[in-house]
Specification:
mainly alpha; elongated
């Protein structure tokens, strides 16, 4: 054992976990190009708002915005339940340690090491709550910007009116993309939380689970049927 009841392999696994999460976020959000699913959807957010400019009846648009807000609110409330569940693990430390000791793949763990691991899980779910709640707030801002987009008829509008409408649409699209980005970060944290849960079993389980989660998320972003569905050059 080393500091805080954790072994050196625990620290290695935790470093791999944190590096994978940070590296994936950096690659997905900072890398140039539009190959990923999220980047492709950001383009369609812009296309959506450009259509709003010439659409007088915006019932469909407000319905879509409401569904986006409801999704963020649902996951924010789910994060609170997850925080409560993780805190319950702390209150039942003695019972859980007895169960974990009898698992085939379980590793001996001290009380302080167990509490550190569970507190880490709490931190992750707190992070997801802030991301989803902030996403919900930004979607609210996006709904206001959606309502602020003027309706024009291109054949009758002046150049100044066209410019104003297109700028309003771009603002709404950018705000919607920011909300989506924070929502995606929250969901990503949920996925990595699943990998983190395996650390309760052991460090090697955390390494394997982190690699598995990374593979699944990479495939969904760059090799999924959803990405193929967005392609305009799909073979017949």
């Amino acid at each position: 054992m080393t500091a805080f009841g954790l072994t050196w392999i625990d620290y290695v696994a935790l470093l791999i976990f944190g590096g994978a999460w940070f590296g994936y976020n950096l690659t997905l959000e900072r890398a140039s190009g539009t190959g990923g699913l999220n980047r492709q959807m950001d383009r369609f957010r812009v296309s959506w708002m450009r259509q709003v400019v010439v659409r007088e009846n915006r019932v469909v648009d407000t319905t879509i915005m409401a569904s986006l807000q409801n999704g963020a609110a649902f996951f924010a409330s789910t994060s609170l339940f997850a925080i409560g569940g993780a805190m319950a693990l702390l209150r039942s430390t003695d019972e859980v340690l007895g169960i974990m000791a009898n698992l085939p793949l379980g590793e001996p763990v001290t009380r302080i090491a167990w509490e550190i691991k569970v507190l880490g899980l709490v931190v992750i779910f707190v992070y997801t709550f802030f991301k989803f709640s902030w996403s919900y707030r930004i979607f609210n801002y996006g709904a206001i910007l959606l309502g602020a987009i003027p309706v024009i008829k291109p054949a009758q509008a002046t150049e100044a009116e066209l410019k104003e409408a297109h700028e309003a649409a771009e603002r709404a699209a950018r705000m919607n993309a920011v909300a989506g980005r924070h929502f995606n970060r929250g969901q990503r944290a949920f996925f990595f939380a699943l990998a983190y849960l395996s650390w309760l079993i052991g460090a090697y389980a955390l390494i394997v689970a982190t690699a598995a989660v990374m593979l699944v998320m990479w495939r969904r972003q760059f090799a999924s049927e959803a990405l193929v569905a967005l392609s305009t050059h799909e073979k017949k």
